[in-house]
Amino acid sequence: MKNILKIISFVALVVTLAPSFLVFKGIITPELSKTLMLIGTIVWFVSASFWMNKSEEGEEEAEG
Predict the structure, then answer these.
(1) Do residues 5 and 11 touch, judged by C-beta distance below 8 A?
(2) How many CA atoms lie within 13 A of 9 on its CB side?
(3) CB 17 within 8 A of CB 62
(4) Cα–Cα distance between 31 and 10 in angstroms, integer?
(5) Domain-by-domain residue ranges, the chain?
(6) How high is the pLDDT of residue 17?
(7) What superkingdom heads the lineage (predicted)?
(8) Which pLDDT tens digit goes with each residue over 8-63?
(9) CA 17, 23, 27, 33 torsion-angle sign
(10) d(CA 14, CA 58)
């Protein structure tokens, strides 16, 4: 499950970054770029919050 969330997070990062280059090249409109970036940002924060720093929490519980 953690690996799936990582893949989703990295795809969301691509969806957040790629539209700026596509607008620069004239492939998509700025309005579509804003929409894609918003979707990518929301998906990134939702999916990354489930797997980031989880290994550190598990190590702290094992030590304590």
Answers:
(1) no
(2) 14
(3) no
(4) 23
(5) 2-63
(6) 95
(7) Bacteria
(8) 999 999 999 999 999 999 999 999 999 999 999 999 999 998 888 766 555 555 55
(9) positive
(10) 29
